[in-house]
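Researcher: Please predict.
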Amino acid sequence: MLVCLTLSLVSPAFGAQGLDIVRFNPKKSTLKVYQSFQEGFLLVSLEPKAPKRFECTPNRYLIYQNKPERFTWISGANLKVSSDFKQVAYLKVLKIGPLGSSDWVPKAKLVSRLVQASPTLLAQTAMQDSDKNHCWQQPVLMQTEGFKETPIPVIGANLCKKRWCSELQFTPQGSLKLWVALEPKRIQMAEFSGDNLLSLGKKSDWFTKESLKLEPVPRKNLLAGKKLEHTQIPLAAGGRLIVKQKKNQVTVTLLRSRPNLAKAKARLQGAKDLLAANQPSKAYQQARFASWLNPKDFDPKYQQLLALAAFAGPAKVFEHLRQDFSKAEQKKACAQLHLDKAFLRLKKQKLFLDQFKQACPSSFSPVF
């Protein structure tokens, strides 16, 4: 499944700023879109299409909130949004490689600690894919105000053999109910408030629900029955979601009509804080979002270079420099790259020096 997050300026004919959020092969994945105009809430869901066998790979979800101007990506087995849009529950996928691999023991100990399960329970509840990877589900509660997450230390029960499927339910009081595995071959319906266990239902033999249909949001899928060649969905505050298909690639783009300088500044600071906290992938997302909110600002673009340097390597750094910077911005970035301590590790690589010389000839020095 091809999924990526990119930033690009949409054709001036639209008179808008565009952020390409997803690219994928429609033969392999299913796209769904849900929205609440009142809450300014958008969910984009991407799941494998009719898999022939089970895979540990999680689904991908994008949440975008218009009013506070923020978004987040979630990788999880399944996802559920509460009816008041204040909470999101999803099942995080915990994966270990084939049995006997060099990192099996330390990773198994980590999974055991995260879900508070014995080695016997882990062995009995593991899902296994075609590459002999072992995986489990851990429930996570997230508040949509600030995207604060609370992991729940328990194994979520998967109810399908060829795909991820679990029954996630929010009660009127805001607690979460789902099937969990607390002992081998048996599951129970459990109710949680945050990570606190409120109650346990009767035990049941582990059953399957292959026909289980999961709707993550209390709204209809806006793409149901529509072709993906060229679809536009109006969003809150005058934005639009554009879905385009060209051969075997579908691109999903978020459009906005005007910049938001204050929110861009806040998201840029968030990106800096995430990078300082050693979360470069999330820092990259936030910096790209800041660029979307204010595409004329140089700083969010450069912040993306810093994040890419921390987790993606020289090729991605210079790809971003060539594609997303104007000629004037490239010259400014090259001058900073030459001196920035954040690139010291990459400067030791021949690939970085070669690409720097090509992209920044006026700034290149043999004594780098």
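Model: Residues 261-359 form a domain with the Serine Threonine Protein Phosphatase 5, Tetratricopeptide repeat fold (CATH 1.25.40).
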